[in-house]
Amino acid sequence: MIDLHIHTTASDGTWTPEQIVTGARSLKLDAIAITDHDTFAGYEEAKPIAAREGVQLVCGIELSTKLQPPGAARPKTVHLLGYFLRPPSPAIMEWVALQQQIRHDRNVELCARLAELNVPVTIDEVRARDKSMAGRPHFAAIMVEKGFATSIQDAFDKYLDEKGAAYVDKHDPSFAEGLRQIREAGGIASLAHPVRLNRHGRDEEDLLRQMVKMGLQAIEAHHSDQPARLRDRYEAMAQHYRLAVTGGSDFHGDNKPGVQLGTGREGNVNVYKKHLERLRALARA
Length: 285
Ligand code: AMP
Ligand code: ZN
Ligand code: FE
Ligand code: FE
Prior knowledge:
The chain has two domains: 2-87 and 174-284, TIM Barrel (Alpha-Beta Barrel); 98-160, DNA polymerase, domain 1, CATH 1.10.150. It is built from ten helices and seven strands. It has helices spanning 17-26, 41-53, 90-116, 123-127, 136-145, 152-160, 175-184, 201-214, 228-240, 273-284, and strands at residues 2-6, 31-34, 57-67, 76-83, 188-191, 218-223, 244-248. The protein has a seven-stranded mixed sheet with strand order 1-2-3-4-5-6-7. Helix 1 runs parallel beside helix 2 (41-53) and helix 5 packs across helix 6 (152-160). The longest helix is centred in the middle third of the chain and has 27 residues, at 90-116. Bound molecules: adenosine monophosphate, zinc ion (ZN) and fe (iii) ion (2 copies). One fe (iii) ion is lined by residues 5, 7, 62, 250.
């Protein structure tokens, strides 16, 4: 079994890269990919540890992008996974640094918005928690500690998600730009957790077709938020559009209670090694 969607303390996970690698070894996973948001720092830290522990480690990243569906009022947030960016090229490293700056600007604005709502969270408190990338889950954890929310989910529901009182839009790159960055760096781009497109039936397929036309190469059919029914649906779509299949738990440690490394929610994720072999062949082609 493999797990191609994992976050570490370099982004918004609560396990260090070392804990992820040793965790993967005890679970006897055949391979893992570290896919932190907007940073390779977790992968870089894990690399020598994985070599020492004999764990196969794939270089990955998760990008937040915006896709404008034809005719829709607003763009949709779409997460893109990039794989096999080895070693990350200077061009993509520079681009990722720019994304971190955009994130930082959003975070400063989010602090101001929260202050207006009498929920004081300072940018220093946020920065104290991350190494290279701070996101809304860090805000949520601070809010729980300070008693402004009862759980991470509660903090998102009340303040942080798109319908929350303090929501601040992040100036994410377009889907086309994210895709281009991954592909120009020699990587494979996969649509993360398609369930979050939050569309059904034909609408969802129209969106996927739009992405495939733009150059999407794979789809994350296996994900801890996708029950077997959806996994089968996305596997069928992958076959129909000739996409490779990726899968992973989207493990975040304590920031996503109920999701286990390698196996997702109550074992709903079990991704076979053959998917990685296909991806690897695609990356070489
Ligand atoms: P950011 O990239 O800083 O905007 O934070 C996005 C991250 O927050 C996502 O990758 C998820 O891990 C988490 N997240 C987003 N929306 C929610 C939500 N409604 N409930 C819980 N976690 C969420
Ligand atoms: Zn995350
Ligand atoms: Fe995501
Ligand atoms: Fe993720």
